[in-house]
Amino acid sequence: MEFFLIINGAIRKWHTALGPLAEVQFNNYKNICGAKENGQDADAYRVAMITHELGHVLGLVHEHQRYDAHDHIIFNCQNVRGYEEAKALVNKEDNREDPWFDENVCTNFQLATDVSHRQKWRAPDYISWPKDESNDLFIFNQKTVGPFDWDSIMVYPSYEYGWVLERKNPAPGQSKTWPMNAEISRGDVEAVKRIYPDIQPPPFAAPAGSSSGENT
Ligand SMILES: [Zn+2]
């Protein structure tokens, strides 16, 4: 078995044991094709993916799903893998008509999750979570809320099969889209320290070539 898949299998055991805290959709070679289209090296992308998944194992959740993500990100639901199939199923079985699916399922994490149990699609990995959930998953998320961390290893890249995520307010000259982050950010380190207050990681050193030494 390819080493990448072995690591994936091991991580999946933790995800199974930990439940939704470490929810994952991981074994996705098409994403590596996406990395190539973004000019990223496939091996580097695999390392970044595993680093991301280990972030879940440590208790981190997706930065692009924090409750205020829509202040920072535009979510293009129609570009998510499985969108057409999920919408067709809901329209047919639930007697819905356009644009009910887009206005409701595409904007509601719980509705999208319910649909994903009937028809596999990835929107529950993108849609922001409600603010007041009492689930432990969301408690972690609340603890991680500070300035939106664009450098986080827990941010998905813009691209999946199309541009799924876009920057809502790009700075002048800044692209609306981004490739997958490859490094652990200062914000990621701070989030892990909040979950495990007894650990004392070394002082944060911005990786060479990272976009920003300061966490924004
Ligand atoms: Zn993830």
The hetero molecules present are: zinc ion
Describe the sheet with the most strands: 2 strands, antiparallel
- The rounded Rg comes to 17 Å
Shape: globular
Low-confidence stretches: 20-30, 134-142, 212-216
Task: Record the strand order, biggest sheet.
Answer: 1-2
Succession of helices and strands = HHHEHHHHEH
Percentage of residues assigned to helices: 40-55%
Q: How widely separated are the two ends?
A: 40 Å
Mean pLDDT: 79
User: Care to count the β-strands?
Assistant: 2
Strand content: under 5%
Structural class of the secondary elements? mainly alpha
Counting DSSP H or I runs of 4 or more residues, the number of helices is: 8
Sequence-ordered SSE layout with sheet pairings:
Layout: H1 3-18, H2 29-37, H3 42-58, E1 73-75, H4 83-93, H5 100-104, H6 109-118, H7 136-144, E2 165-167, H8 186-195
Antiparallel strand pairs: 1-2
The protein binds zinc ion.
The site of zinc ion has 4 residues, from α3.
InterPro entries: MetalloPept_cat_dom_sf (IPR024079), Peptidase_M12A (IPR001506)
Organism: Tothia fuscella
EC number: 3.4.24.-
Describe this structure in words.
The chain is mainly α. It contains eight helices and two strands. It starts with a helix and ends in a 21-residue tail after the last helix. Bound molecules: zinc ion. Residues 24, 52, 56, 62 line the site of zinc ion. This is Metalloendopeptidase.
